[in-house]
Amino acid sequence: MPKAVYDTRFFIEYFYSQDAAVLRKAKEVIQKAGQGFISAIVIHEVYQLVLKKEGRETAILRTTILEKDFKIVDVNSEIAKSSAELRNKHKMSLADSIIAATAMSIKATCLTDDPHFKAVSEIKTAWI
Predict the structure, then answer these.
(1) What is the pLDDT of residue 34?
(2) Which long-range contacts (CB under 8 A, 24 or more apart) does 62-66 make?
(3) Which domains does the chain have, with CATH numbers?
(4) What is the pLDDT of residue 1?
């Protein structure tokens, strides 16, 4: 797989999918991928989701594993400005525009099934 930025929705499927085939495929993607990238905003979104569903200890554990297994891309001024442009042009949420701008910044495919990303011609998207 080419260089990939993982969207939060990937981890929602990875952690909570009830579909065995989707879960198996998500695990295969991670095993076969080289260095994966995630935006720091994904840490926020995953932590918040897991905190609500399973509590603080599990949220800490899961995000610590993400920090260990993926390269975290911080939001710098270039990504912030690109995110604002994408948000304005495509009417995206703040988090989605940051993730898309991160993919643009490192020239990576965005691994997501979120239809908002498909409208962004500036990036490539793929799904499991």
Answers:
(1) 72
(2) 62/15, 66/11, 66/38, 66/42
(3) 4-120 (3.40.50.1010)
(4) 59
